[in-house]
Amino acid sequence: MAEEEKDFIFSDICVEENLVYRKPDTLTDTELHYCPGCGHGVAHKILMEVVDELGIQNETIGVAPVGCSVFAYHYLNVDMQEAAHGRACAVATGIKRVQPDKFVFTYQGDGDLAAIGTAETIHAANRGENFLIVFINNGVYGMTSGQMAPTTLPGMVTTTSPFGRDTKIHGYPLKIANLVASLPGVAYVTRQSVHKPVNVRKAKKAFQKAFEYQKRGLGTCLVEIVSNCPSNWRMTPLESNKFVEDKMIPFYPLGDLKVPEGK
What we know:
Elements: H1 3-17, H2 40-54, E1 60-64, H3 72-75, E2 79-82, H4 88-98, E3 103-109, H5 110-116, H6 118-127, E4 132-137, H7 167-170, H8 176-181, E5 186-193, H9 197-215, E6 220-226, H10 230-233, H11 237-251, E7 255-258
Parallel strand pairs: 1-2, 1-3, 3-4, 4-6, 5-6
Antiparallel strand pairs: 5-7
Helix pairs in contact: 2-9, 5-6
């Protein structure tokens, strides 16, 4: 065997032995363009890892509407359907009813799901539509310059609440996961985050459970991800992660809000 061939084989073996992560086929090769520190990229990664590990890539259909969520089409290598702003749950309802054997999920931000899409979200959940709602909660409208959202914390500064959210004027933040969990058609509701490795693992497990419950036909599942928006929060990525820990999570506590009987 030639010396060059030996070196090639040895090098190839070393690469495999030291491999700690391989991007699944459920993610495209497109370079992420989200702002540095944004939680969307991590959410994409673990969601698609679950689809890959369950072997359901060809049976999965995602729905994403307007907002930063719309960019999911560039990165999620599954069948995707566009929806108008706030209408993802309505579109997902139609898809799931026409193709009940498919795994269907929506991918939505708080400005979309909890504002213009509140009716679609609540009524789909109340009907017990058998799909997964992925809800990214970063407390602002991310794509359109950081306006106050339904989930903006009391006192939180945004471009449309420069003196902080005043609950006497603007009302209180909506805890959508809590509202959805109260509906009888809902099977599983959990609130997780992706700001620390241990939380990323828990969020990934939540996605896995949600798809398994969907396969069993148990009803609507909602996984809320408490995330950050460094650009619109006017913070560094590290500062924004600390804000998630110190401010967001105390108001939006992590953990399961509803699980199926017998799990």
